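Suppose a colleague, Dr. K., hands you the sequence of a protein chain of 270 amino acids and asks what its three-dimensional shape might be. Before reaching for any lab equipment, you can write down a predicted structure in token form. Begin with the sequence itself:
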Amino acid sequence: MALSEEDVRLLAKELWDAERGSAPTQPISARYPGADIDDAYRIQLDGVRLRTQAGDVVRGHKVGLTARVMQQQFGVTRPDFGHLLGSMFHPEGEPLPVDELIAPRVEPELAFLLDKPLRGPGVTVADVLAATAFVLPALEIIDSRIQDWKIGIVDTVADNASSARVVLGGTRTPLSEVDPRLIGVVLRRNGEIVETGASGAVLGNPAQAVAWLANTIAGHGGVLNPGDLIMPGTCTRAVDMAPGDTVRADFDRLGHVGISFSSAEEGAAA
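The predicted structure, expressed as tokens, is then:
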């Protein structure tokens, strides 16, 4: 680890300020070339501490960069994880003011809701299946507090895995009714198909991504708890969004989820 505790605190505050002000900062990896992934998770955890001290609450976790297509899009070679906070959850039927974000992109995902704890190391896919109450169609809106998405693994991990918003669909499906490896998804923007994929692109099985998370987070003193929502990563590329856009993801046998994007002014007028 190359960063001092003061460096970690300053960078965590800088990223939080960038998020609150919708104004990006410069890549951490360029300014601190010696920083490693452990430093990045220290920054992330300190950022979560700042948010929870301000009244937010952790409601789950996300796994990012689990599909090869996403690793290629962002030039990285390994998954990462971030925290999902209560303030990130946005109702499906309510337009999302895109002005609140910097450079949002949308990903379709299969969300897991746990009803049993998962404590690593040694968590398997079978453990994940047994611990999952149901799955939901979901959209993750990612965003980068780093200028122009110029990110490496250290930058995105420090930036809470580029987390921003989560939109959940209204259909609950027990895993006993579907094979999580074989779920196709079609993503439409303004009615036109922009991405298609299959859930098996997520580490071969989205449940494997949840197991990876449980085992990895154990090394940082964490555990996945009953009631946690886990986003295992997308099977498609992330798609850029702008004011006026509407996006919808249709999942085989799971239903659909959608969201529209407005400007802050449009939201206020409505």
